[in-house]
Specification:
Number of domains: 3
Distance between the termini: 33 Å
CATH topology of the largest domain: BirA Bifunctional Protein, domain 2
Protein name: Glycine--tRNA ligase
CATH superfamily of the largest domain: Bira Bifunctional Protein, Domain 2
Structural class: alpha+beta
Family: Belongs to the class-II aminoacyl-tRNA synthetase family.
Shape: globular
Strand content: 15-25%
Number of strands: 23
GO molecular function: ATP binding; bis(5'-nucleosyl)-tetraphosphatase (asymmetrical) activity; glycine-tRNA ligase activity
Number of helices: 18
Pfam families: HGTP_anticodon, tRNA-synt_2b
Helix content: 40-55%
Largest sheet: 7 strands, mixed
Bound molecules: adenosine-5'-triphosphate
Subunit structure: Homodimer.
CATH architecture of the largest domain: 2-Layer Sandwich
Length: 513
């Protein structure tokens, strides 16, 4: 655990030191759970967004993009259910005065039971070796059955209580399980209360005519209210999707995990409109397709898992998370939700405008069902960044810090380094940059010894360093150094573009899906 905490601390400090992420308004001591993306962070974030957009929008004939406004008519949020139901159950500890999400305290307890069961399973696997049958062990071993049974029972009871708004029972559960404040160990809890996560603001100048607005807590509703506009003007035929990326805002109760849980964050969402009754087929399809998109980045299959929801949101008939192994354990990275026809029907009812589709094949009008994929761009950033940050011991015993980002996402694709600052080498390096910058984000660096420059680029995640030396002047060759293997090859300047391209092109990465 201590090691994990150290790793997470390294992630946060590396992100700051190398110009990826700063605390917002730092000179005023920052604003809690709000962050700014710095010169390198903004490039990495943009590359993740582009990688998503390419795969979701441009590679699908039947998915189109949208960029709807953050401000929406306030009735939108009545219709969507957010005004009445976008709440988190909060609980305060009377001694420490710390505030927690009651559901998260219970889920963490359940996860501990799960870990105990997994430990037993691993022990048995080691004992029985090849002959081990996990399925049989899990269904017959008394201890494992007890851990997993208890976990299930707890989560089901919580889901029931939250669904029926029985907050007293949520508190009773916390007390029965003897859950203590994770920071202080105190079990002196207040009642559980519901807390709405939407930020309110006002539109208009004078106090009497001002209109109460919300900052959108998800981008999805901008898609739903534009459903017919896009369908008609784009002559879209079901099944089809509308995708958008953009800011969303939530007044999170507990926001202590860097960019994992922010109050202002960015989502990448796609709503896929299907015939009623076909939603489960597409739900499965999108679960797999989205997992494959994540896997294409090569962060390791073992770092992902599905988590099927026991407690469904008011609009869903099936929901699963793709969880990622963050430095603080497996947590939600993306949600895949079968949202039924809830949203379109609600908007039809509240606006009085028909939100139906005429299916020419069936010769029939209906309200489409919706399957949503929703991933947090900042959580993707954290997943990629934390997984890529490595401390390596080299053959000569020295260490290096390297950010092994998937090269398709790296902020800078190549750094061009003149070996010395004279003899015409900088001029040649600049010429190389002039040529490469049309295709790639490239950097020039002439300060310090070349070894130190390599290390600086390693820490920034730059896949290639190109060094111009005296031989370059004679034969138009340079050395190209690979970030991960540190191998150096002598190549012709004219080959550089194709070497870099074959490593960083989205085409080659997305082909792996
Ligand atoms: P959680 O259970 O972690 O609060 P959620 O289930 O409320 O998340 P959704 O409403 O499904 O999240 O939102 C879709 C995605 O948006 C999430 O999978 C996550 O990646 C991202 N997201 C949600 N809330 C935040 C936040 N406060 N900060 C950063 N990303 C977020």
């Amino acid at each position: 655990m201590a090691k994990q905490e150290d790793l997470f601390k390294n992630v946060v400090s590396h992100a700051k030191e190398y110009g990826f992420i700063f605390q917002s308004s730092e000179i005023y001591d920052g604003l809690s759970a709000v962050y700014d993306y710095a010169q390198n962070g903004v490039e990495l974030k943009k590359n993740i967004r582009d990688y998503w957009w390419k795969s979701m929008v441009q590679m699908h004939e039947n998915i189109v993009g949208l960029d709807s406004a953050i401000f929406m008519h306030p009735t939108t949020w009545k219709a969507s259910g957010h005004v009445d139901a976008f709440n988190d159950p909060l609980i305060d500890n009377k001694d420490s005065k710390k505030r927690y999400r009651a559901d998260v305290l219970i889920e963490d307890y359940a996860e501990k039971l799960n870990q105990k069961a997994q430990k037993e399973i691993e022990k048995a696997r080691a004992r029985f070796g090849e002959a081990f049958n996990e399925q049989e062990f899990v269904t017959t071993n008394a201890r494992v059955m007890e851990y997993l049974g208890k976990k299930k029972e707890i989560l089901e009871r919580m889901a029931r209580s939250l669904e029926t708004e029985n907050l007293a029972d949520v508190k009773a559960l916390i007390e029965e399980l003897e859950i203590a404040d994770p920071e202080t160990g105190s079990k002196n809890w207040t009642e559980v209360r519901q807390f709405n996560l939407m930020f309110g603001t006002k539109l208009g100048a004078s106090a009497d005519s001002a209109m109460d607005l919300y900052l959108r807590p998800e981008t999805a509703q901008g898609i739903f209210v534009n459903f017919l506009n896009v369908q008609k003007t784009g002559r879209m035929k079901i099944p089809f999707g509308i995708a958008q990326t953009g800011k969303a805002f939530r007044n999170e109760i507990v926001a202590r995990q860097f960019i994992f849980r922010m109050r202002e964050f960015e989502q990448m969402e796609m709503q896929f409109f299907v015939r009623p009754g076909e939603e489960m087929k597409y739900y499965e399809y999108w679960k797999n397709t989205r997992l494959n998109w994540h896997l294409s980045l090569g962060l390791g299959k073992e770092n992902y898992r599905f988590h099927d929801h026991e407690k469904l949101a008011h609009y869903a008939n099936a929901a699963a998370d793709i969880e990622f192994n963050f430095p603080f354990g497996f947590k939600e990275l993306e949600g895949i939700h079968s949202r039924t026809d809830f949203d379109l029907k609600a908007h039809e009812q509240f606006s009085g405008k028909k939100m139906q589709y005429f299916d020419t094949e069936l010769n029939q009008n209906y309200t489409p069902y919706v399957v949503e994929t929703s991933v947090g761009l900042d959580r993707m950033f954290l997943a990629v960044f934390s997984n890529s940050l490595k401390e390596e011991t080299l053959e000569d015993g020295s260490t290096r810090t390297v950010l092994q980002l998937p090269s398709v996402l790296a902020p800078t694709k190549a750094a061009v380094l003149p070996l010395v600052k004279k003899d015409g080498l900088p001029e040649v390096a600049r010429q190389i940059i002039e040529d490469l910058k049309w295709d790639f984000n490239v950097a020039y660096d002439e300060k310090d010894a070349v070894g130190r420059r390599y290390r600086r680029q390693d820490a920034l995640g730059t896949p290639f360093c190109i060094t111009v030396d005296h031989q370059t002047l004679e034969d138009q060759t340079v050395t190209i150094r690979h970030r991960d293997s540190m191998q150096q090859d002598r190549v012709k300047i004219e080959e550089l573009r194709s070497i870099i391209n074959s490593e960083v092109s989205m085409r080659n990465w997305l082909m792996k899906m």
